[in-house]
Amino acid sequence: MEAVVLGSTGIKVNKNGFGALPIQRVSTEDAVKLARKAYEAGITFFDTARFYTDSEEKLGEAFDGMREKVYIATKTAAKNADEFWEQLGISLHNLRTDYIDIYQFHNPSFCPKPGDGTGLYEAMLEAKAQGKIRHIGITNHRLAVAEEAIESGLYETLQFPFCYLATDKDIALVEKCKKADMGFIAMKALSGGLITNSAAAYAFEAQYENVLPIWGVQREKELDEFISYIDNPPTMTDEIRALIENDRKELAGDFCRGCGYCMPCPAGIEINNCARMSLLLRRSPSALQLTPEVQAKMKKIENCLHCNKCKSKCPYGLDTPALLAKNYEDYKQVLAGNVSVN
Ligand code: SF4
Ligand code: SF4
């Protein structure tokens, strides 16, 4: 079994972490079954967020009466100290616990620090002193904020997107965390569904001993794949290297990662899927994307107000309205049978 130690937290877990965002989309019964199955197989790190609707409640149900057997990380998107305490109280209640192992600021647009006027970091320290949280972490999609968090020395973990499409700067971030004795929690290791070969994804992450990937799990079949990597971890082979190289070429440049940070959209456009439809059509069974429901979602792009709210929020600096228009044009061509996909 490959294990990861999350820097100065000393938390040592199997290299397969459980990302609890997708369990919002399944019933409580199925979510509990997935989380328990993961635990029984040896997965002990579970990452959720206050923002993921009922995900915390589902984990609370799954680990009721056995809290100390797992590590739970959750996140707060609080903008001030009052919101911080309110959200922390709800998370503790939902998770049926009196402590959170790693409490993370959820993708803030700046790096919270003591004395910055928000009171957020002071609240973290107070929560830690009260024993309600054990370690302070931060998640982000912006390189500059992530780097500032590392340099600040205020955080024990960083959660950042990290998959085999990573740039040299992303890889440097992993090294900086290692030097700073900070845990690196890798989100989006499957790039929001664009990476379909999980063994290749694992083999990439395995090259970095301080990285803990948290796999977003919604179906038992997906979980079973990661469980199989506990005893048989995939390693980098020439074949996997070639596949990664090919994907890097195919996904080079500006593409939507499906993170959803640009939402909500005032025109009701489901940007996180619509802005990457061309890739979804070609990298997963296209029939799933050509249903009347998806067609209706894509048609909403016609209602785009060009308000640019999405563009200003995209952490990858994408021209989101233009990307939506491009994807819609391609979608119409595919629907009309003018362009063939799989
Ligand atoms: S520019 Fe269009 S897609 Fe973006 S937020 Fe505004 S209406 Fe929505
Ligand atoms: S357009 Fe940007 S913010 Fe919106 S889902 Fe895609 S990558 Fe995320």
TrEMBL record:
Can the keyword Cell cycle be found in this entry's annotation? no
Q: Which organism is it from?
A: Roseburia intestinalis L1-82
Q: What is its EC number?
A: 1.1.1.-
What's a single GO MF annotation on this record? iron-sulfur cluster binding
Q: In its UniProt entry, what is this protein called? A: General stress protein 69
What is the superkingdom listed in this entry's lineage? Bacteria
All copies of the NADP-dependent oxidoreductase domain together span 20-197
Q: Does the keyword Methyltransferase apply?
A: no
Pfam families this protein is in? Answer: Aldo_ket_red, Fer4_17
